[in-house]
Write a structure and sequence with these properties.
Elements (H helix, E strand, L loop, with lengths): L16 H23 L12 H6 L8 H9 L3 H7 L1 H18 L12 H16 L11
Helix pairs in contact: 1-3, 3-4, 4-5
Amino acid sequence: MNPLRSGARRPGWAPTARPVRDAWTGAGVFATLCVVTALVDPTRAGRFPACPFRTLTDFDCPGCGSLRALHELTHGHLMAAADYNLLLVAFLPCAAAVWLRAVTGRARRRVLPKWSAPATITVLVVWAVLRNLPVLGGVLGA
């Protein structure tokens, strides 16, 4: 009987190989995005496409201002980045912690807990509503 067909694992098989590979792939994509936004100023018209949500509804989506915020972060301007999209600035340290957990192998089966997807959706919806309230006078707008 073939041990590989019976469900036995091969010697040296690491159960965390895929999450680590995916984490490094994501880091590479994010690093590329950082380089592009550092070199190309998103505040100049015509450099990047307009937000489709804002074009259709005239409201800021949760991601509006993220490219400009990332551009400011790559140039070391934390307060200017927070002015464009505070949620992105608050999210990046959390994303870095999850990334480190995946890369170091601290996550056994799941890198994120089961409640993280509903919590993320809730935060995005609340952020989208708050940043479009006229009461705040556009303080949280992009």
